[in-house]
Write a structure and sequence with these properties.
heterodimer; A: alpha/beta; six-stranded mixed β-sheet; three-stranded antiparallel β-sheet; 9 strands; 36% helix; B: mainly alpha; ABC transporter involved in vitamin B12 uptake, BtuC; 13 helices
Chain lengths: 231, 274
């Protein structure tokens, strides 16, 4: 459903991505891994059209993208209720209408209930814990998209238990509702267990294939740290 | 208080000043919520100083002040936003440089034209006598434009303020939004400058939003509260200035806003502990 061909991106004169090509099929769960500065976040931003492309194409054949940015830029005292935050996910569906209709409000309610954030709907978003915030932002992403989730390091800074919960929620969306998932992750050990496919990025595609094949590859052995366990 | 208000309304010039002030207070409070949350508060301050410079230069050259102030401030608004976004220049330093330069240019122009006369003084600290019929019409047009923008664009303004990256990914592009905000802020400052004075107008942008954030936790709540507080503080400030002739109008309004902020902080603190 998503096809990236020969994508190149240059930021501030430096090449960040070069000749990146891969495609994601409907219903797949793909994790993007790689060293810091390898262009993982930039790839997501290029798919969304937020950074200028120096070359190549990105084609989304069907559906709509729900995006969970790396971190929210809103300040610590930003006045926004959980409900307002989740509902803002429906922004893309507004078109030329000024207000949300019943369809959007029902969708937001459904998603909030499913992710267990409905009880917090009147609470202040900025006063939630890190894990609660990510849950709310995942709800917003599910409101924004139709069947493709783009997640940019959703578990950064979360404790192990909360991380596990968030992985479960993403997995649930993937398995039970058929969301296609494209997730940037620095947690490569979990990535290989949850994802169908791994995209290892280091300026260009260094590996793209199933998690099993990645684990068997030299790059995979090296990057998951298993090379050192034997020494 | 209501007798005083009725008495005030019998003077045509005070009625005009009140009308302009109420409309400008509402506009600046609405814009202020986004400006404060995006940490652009200083832009209002910078723009008002640019306004002072432009007005005094116009006075010295004997041209209609608005013809100079409006284009100069629109250009400055874009410039300030651009500087704020560029990483090469620290944003608050840029605002300070532009503010100080504008005042220096303004004072020099005023002194060339024969010193700090009452006109210059009224630009700095505002004057209820200076408000004309055209100002009322201008304020009305501006207020109608801003209200329409806020009502129809409310959900987009929320998304743009809360998370510009996400808004951008959802098709609400941030660049034109930034420009619209810069333009409307410049216009609000130009219109409000007469009553409030260039030194005090930026308070009208910052105070209501900060006060409302003490009282409400949702964006809708803060936006509505800021509008109500701003209008109330303006009316109270004007009445105080009328009742006690030693309080200038602009100062009275800012002091009323300060009082509201202190009260709101108290309420917020009591609520947290209680």
């Amino acid at each position: 459903m998503l096809k990236v061909e020969n994508l190149s991106v240059a930021l501030g004169g430096a090449t960040v991505l070069e000749n990146v090509s891969f495609s994601v099929q409907k219903g797949e769960y793909v994790c993007i891994v790689g060293e810091n500065g390898g262009g993982k976040s930039t790839l997501l931003r290029a798919i969304l059209g937020q950074v200028p492309r120096a070359g190549g194409t990105v084609t989304l054949t069907e559906g709509k993208i729900g995006y969970l940015p790396q971190q929210s830029t809103a300040g610590a005292d930003f006045p926004a209720s959980v409900k307002e935050t989740v509902l803002s996910g429906c922004l893309g569906a507004l078109g030329w209408r000024p207000f949300y209709g019943r369809a959007e409000k029902e969708k937001a309610e459904r998603v909030m209930k499913r992710l267990g954030v409905w009880e917090w709907r009147e609470r202040s978003f900025s006063r939630l814990s890190g894990g609660q915030k990510q849950r709310v932002l995942l709800a917003r992403a599910l409101c924004a998209g139709e069947n493709l989730l783009l997640l940019d390091e959703p578990i950064t800074g979360l404790d192990p238990l909360v991380t596990q919960e968030l992985y479960q929620l993403i997995d649930q969306a993937h398995r039970e509702e058929g969301w296609t998932v494209l997730m940037v992750s620095h947690d490569v050990k979990t990535a290989v267990t949850v994802a169908d496919k791994i995209l290892h990025l280091g300026k260009t595609v260094r590996f793209f294939g199933t998690s099993e094949a990645y684990l068997a590859s030299d790059l995979g052995i090296h990057f998951t740290g298993r090379c050192c366990e034997h020494v | 208080m209501f007798d005083l208000l009725r008495e005030m309304l019998s003077y045509a010039f005070l009625l005009r000043a009140l009308a302009v002030g109420v409309m400008v207070s509402l506009c600046s409070a609405l814009l202020g919520v986004t400006l404060v949350l995006k940490k652009y508060s200083m832009i209002g301050d910078g723009l008002s100083h640019v306004g002072f410079g432009a007005m005094t230069v116009a006075l010295a050259l004997n041209v209609a002040p608005l013809y100079v102030a409006v284009p100069v401030m629109i250009v400055s608004a874009f410039l300030l936003l651009r500087l704020r976004q560029s990483s090469r220049f620290s944003g608050d330093a840029a605002v300070a440089i532009i503010s100080a330069s504008s005042i220096a240019v303004g004072i020099t122009a005023a002194s060339l034209a024969g010193g700090l006369n009452t006109d210059v003084y009224s630009y700095m600290f505002g004057s209820v006598l200076a408000v004309t019929r055209e100002d009322v019409i201008l304020a009305f047009v501006l207020c109608a434009a801003i209200l329409t923008f806020f009502v129809l664009g409310y959900h987009r303004i929320f998304a743009f303020t809360f998370d510009p990256d996400f808004a951008d990914a959802s098709g609400t592009h941030t660049r034109p939004f930034n420009m619209v905000f810069a333009l409307l802020t410049a216009a609000t400052i130009v219109v409000g400058m007469r009553v409030m004075g260039t030194m005090l107008i930026s308070g009208l942008i910052v105070f209501p939003a900060v006060t409302a954030m003490r009282l409400s936790r949702s964006f809708r709540g803060v936006t509505v509260t800021a509008g109500v507080i701003s209008v109330a503080a303006f009316v109270i400030g004007m009445i105080a200035s009328y009742a006690f002739s030693y309080i200038p109008a602009g100062a009275g309004v800012v002091l009323a806003n300060l009082l509201f902020l202190l009260l709101a902080s108290l309420v917020g603190r009591l609520r947290k502990t209680g």
